[in-house]
Amino acid sequence: MTAGRSSIRARLSLGLGIICAFAVATLVFTLFWEYDITPGDLAGPDHSAAWREVRDHVILPILVLIVPTLIATTWVIDRALRPLARSARAIATTPAQRGLRLPHEELPVEVAPFVGSINDLLARLDSAAARQEAFAADVAHELRTPLAIMAMQLDSPDPIDRAHLRREITAMHRLVEQLLLMAQIEAEAATPQPAQRFSLAAVAEDVVAALAPQVIALGREIALEEPPARPLATVVGHREAVAAALRNLVENAVRVTPPGGLVRVAAGPGACLHVTDEGPGLSAEALARLTRRHARADHASRDGAGLGLNIVERIMAAHGGTLRSDAERRTLTLRFPYTPSSGSTG
After folding, report:
1. How does pLDDT run across 33-77, given as a tens digit for each residue?
2. Do 83 and 153 fall into the same domain?
3. Do both 201 and 300 map to the same domain?
4. Domain for residue 280, yes or no?
5. Does residue 153 sit in the same domain as residue 216?
6. What are the tens digits of pLDDT across the range 24-39?
7. Contacting residues for 341 by C-beta, under 8 A, at least 6 apart
8. Ranges for the Histidine kinase domain (predicted)?
9. Alpha-carbon Rg for the chain in angstroms
10. Measured between alpha carbons, how far is 265 from 220 in angstroms, rounded to an integer?
């Protein structure tokens, strides 16, 4: 037996021993009470009669009843634990592979919930492994093209087009950022980290301030609408991930907005972040298609990796929220579960 731990067999045997000790004590007490025997009678001058009563009514019944019971109980315990031993041997000889589940058909009913929980855990591990495989596929798929283009530029006998090469490096930098963010999301799904409470209005303000120079350089305008009156909407989660989701929506909105157009960002009412552009609008069906990996809209630029909206949807799912589109208002909305707060937080 492993130090510090007990087995089911030991616990059952201990319980059976306690039952037997209680039965013997009850039998001795009943005998002494019935025949008016005291402990002094066992050591007195006429002790033979008292000991004879103990022998006939205590020792012999114990030998006749309890000993066979102990033997039978040991056999029953061994038989009950035998399926566990068979399952352990089967698991030990099974090669590690995707979709492995513990057999439970012949296990005792009491063990079934435990085995079911282990199988659920194995299913979650399979899901995590599948996400990691998908992430590796994303990396290979998305890095192949820009690397090939840069290699062609370097191998070409013509002078290097530095501006074109710089654009490719910028696109790859953006792609790496997107892939790293996706890796963080997947890691968070597998190993949840401590969350914090923060204000959506503060997130919108920070994202607009950070992207404003880039948007203006591209010939568009960006505006942050005034948040609604208190109580301010706050959510519990990971501020950086939510900011990244909003930043993706703003960058997509800038791409579809014609030069001189305006992108508007708003927080609220409620636990919502809205991004409105001057593009053609996005239907719910188109949004569902674009949230798949590598899907691009007709107006998407080649700088995108087809991962933006997919990442946004994953971030929202991790926060218990949703990504919604209103084609008529040309607005994408991040909607979160929340509780009102009396003041603004980080």
Report:
1. 776 767 666 666 666 766 776 777 777 777 777 778 778 878 887
2. no
3. yes
4. yes
5. no
6. 788 777 777 776 767 6
7. 197, 199, 231, 232, 233, 234
8. 138-340
9. 36
10. 14
